[in-house]
Every structure is written in C-alpha cells, then in structure tokens.
From TrEMBL:
HAMAP family: DAP_epimerase
Reaction catalysis annotation: (2S,6S)-2,6-diaminopimelate = meso-2,6-diaminopimelate
Name of the protein in its database record: Diaminopimelate epimerase
Major location category of this protein: cytoplasm
PROSITE patterns on file: DAP_EPIMERASE
Localization, UniProt: Cytoplasm
Enzyme Commission identifier(s): 5.1.1.7
General function of this protein: Catalyzes the stereoinversion of LL-2,6-diaminopimelate (L,L-DAP) to meso-diaminopimelate (meso-DAP), a precursor of L-lysine and an essential component of the bacterial peptidoglycan.
Gene3D superfamilies recorded: Diaminopimelate Epimerase, Chain A, domain 1 (3.10.310.10)
Organism for this UniProt entry: Sinomonas cyclohexanicum
Listed InterPro entries: DAP_epimerase_AS, DAP_epimerase_DapF
Site (Could be important to modulate the pK values of the two catalytic cysteine residues): 190, 245
Length: 315
C-alpha cells in the first residue's frame, strides 16, 4: 500500500522525486531550493516542497522556488495580462510547503537562477519583469547583485496606523511585556516592532512564533528592529533586524521584511526621514530605497546580492 504524500516521511517523499535536477541559492543567507520547470511538467505539491526544504532529512531551505513560464499557470496568465513581457513566473512555497505571495530575497535569487540556467540574458543595467503572486516585479541587474522594484507599500490598517502610529501588539519570548507594532503590506503581510537596545534584539527567542494581536487576516511575518545610533548618517538611515517568517520560523534575512522595517521606522521617524536605508540582518546587509512609481504611488526598491551555490540531482 502506498501512503499519501502527507503521511510519508521526508526521505520517502524525496525518493519519489528521484532524478529531479535542482540548485541551491541564497540572498543574504535567506536560502532556497530552485527547480527549473519551464513547461509546467513537474508540479511540486505542498508535502514535496516541505520535504525538500527539511533541513534534517531533505536538502534544507527557507523556501522552494519553481521557475515556470507564466503562461503555464493561471496566476501567470493574469500577470501576462498586466505585463506581456513577464515571461517567467516565480512559483514560491515557504519551507512548510504553503504558497507565498512574494519573497524579496527570493526574486533576486530567482533571476540569478534564470541566468545560471541560460533561460534569460540580462546585462548589467537591464531590467527583467518577473511574475509573482504579488504581481509583476521588475528586477535590475547591477554589478554587485540585483535591485527589485517591490511595488507600492501600504499599511494593513491605514486608519489605525494614522491615528495611533501602531495597529497591533506583539508578544515574544525574551520580551517582558507586549510591544506596540505596525503592520505593513509589501504584497505579503508584515508586522514591525521597534526595540530600544541591541541586547533586546539578541535576547529574543524566535524559535517560538511571536503572538500578534490582532493578527492580519492571512497571518504575518514579524520583524524586530533596532534603530542605529545615530539613525541617519550621510543621508542614509540604518537599522538592524531579526525576523520570524510565517510558515518558516526565524530566517537569516527577509527581503520584504527589510522593506517593511524601513517603512515603519521611516514613518515613526517623521518628517525629514531619509528615502534610503541600510538594513542589517543576520545574513548580511540589504539596501532599501523609496522611489516614485509609474502608477503615481511611492514604491520600495530592494537591492542586494544573490548567489547560486550548488547544483545537484535528487538520487
């Protein structure tokens, strides 16, 4: 008798994927298993994605990215209606196998993977539109990595944010009391907490998911942020961040989380706060910039490295 995938162990599930080529990549330590499936021949189910991302019995990663042509997915067809040049779609799953709208580090690694596989050509300074479940993201290749127009940001509860400068409280292991927080959408949900001291940040126990009240409708990622002293130097703001990602746990970096952290700290800093930010995460450093969008709204640009570190075939 064959057990359903959900009842099988990670090794059993992976055994059923024997012969599947893959790559491993990361952006500031946020790591991914990547699979090329241009024609949509290899659907990877939730249990298969979770098994591949298992750090003890699988390859190990914060998420799984499948490179598929947009025309092969219903979500991708919708993207093509918006942007006919968005040939490639980033089909992304969290480490637990759940679908996710967007990953800022992941989309940079995705483009590095497309280049690595010879699926696209992109010279420094050129821009490639990519389909995601959060819409089209335009990725520019730079000499030191990639920059992504992450689109417009918005508060999840704009009325409460405007009235109180916070819209939730967060409780976490290592914090003595619940802290005020601000929830920001970057196409996926984030809740940002400002801490006063680096020691508070270091003392967090993010092996346990923080409790957010009220939690956004589809769950949330939670960022804990310590502003630098001074906050701004040479016109650039700087913060240090740790993050607990929904469906994953603590990660070395979160691109959309870095954007959300910059949005919240800039909002709290008030008038005169800069439009450029450095966000230091356990896996490195990313840049965040606020730029005018073609739609007349303020967009957020995320920049940083992306590295493909290994290739393999499942045995």
């Amino acid at each position: 008798m064959t057990l359903p995938a959900a009842a099988q162990s990670a090794p059993d599930v992976i055994h059923g994927l024997a012969g599947l080529p893959f790559a491993k990549g990361h952006g500031t330590g946020n790591d991914f298993v990547l699979v090329a499936d241009p024609a949509g021949d290899r659907h990877l189910a939730e249990a298969e994605a979770a098994a591949l991302c298992d750090r003890h019995q699988g390859i190990g990663a914060d998420g799984l990215i499948r490179a598929i042509r947009s025309r092969e997915l219903p979500e991708g067809i919708s993207v093509l209606a918006e942007e006919p040049e968005a040939e490639w779609f980033m089909d992304y799953r969290n480490a637990d196998g759940s679908l996710s709208e967007m990953c800022g580090n992941g989309v940079r690694v995705f483009v590095a993977f497309l280049l690595d596989q010879g699926l696209v050509e992109l010279a420094p300074g050129e821009v490639l539109p990519i389909g995601t479940r959060a819409g089209v993201k335009r990725v520019e290749r730079r000499s030191d990595g990639f920059a992504v127009d992450m689109g417009p940001w918005e508060f999840i509860d704009p009325q409460r944010a405007a009235a109180d400068a916070s819209d939730a409280t967060v409780t976490a292991v290592g914090l003595d009391v619940a802290r005020p927080a601000l929830s920001v959408s970057m196409g996926n949900p984030h809740t940002v907490v400002a801490l006063a001291e680096p020691s508070e940040l270091a003392g967090l126990g993010l092996h346990t998911a923080p409790a957010v009240d009220p939690v956004p409708p589809h769950g949330t990622n939670v960022e804990f942020v310590v502003p630098s002293e001074p906050l701004v130097a040479d016109g650039v703001g700087s913060v240090t961040m740790r993050v607990h990602e929904r469906g994953v746990g603590e990660t070395q970096s979160c691109g959309t989380g870095a954007c959300a952290a910059a949005v919240a700290i800039r909002y709290w800093a008030g008038a005169g706060a800069p439009d450029r930010w450095d966000v230091v995460v356990p896996g490195g450093r990313v840049g965040v910039a606020f730029i005018p969008g073609a739609d007349g709204r303020e967009h957020v640009e995320l920049s940083g490295p992306a590295v493909i570190v290994a290739h393999g075939t499942l045995g």
